[in-house]
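Appendix C reproduces, verbatim, an entry submitted by the partner laboratory led by Prof. M.T., so that reviewers can inspect both the input and the predicted structure.
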Amino acid sequence: MFRWELEDLAREQLTGMPPQVQLVLSDFMDAVVIVDQPINLKEAHAGAIRLPGSHVPGIAAGQLHTEGNLEFNNGFTASAEICL
């Protein structure tokens, strides 16, 4: 799992915010994924794939198999095609 690492200035600014704001921003940063290369899920098998609020350049997912949900919602965007 990817975890955000803040640089010193950003860490100081986050620490100076009220605890409730810190929690909301931390949850947001953990929930949103920004990808700079197309995602390759060709022939992948997964329990579920969820990318809410994520920004991706495209997804290639021919013959993808999921046991659960495939979710692209809550502000999800793709700048190129999604092939399922």
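The chain has two domains: 1-31, 33-84. Additional entries are available on request from the coordinating office.
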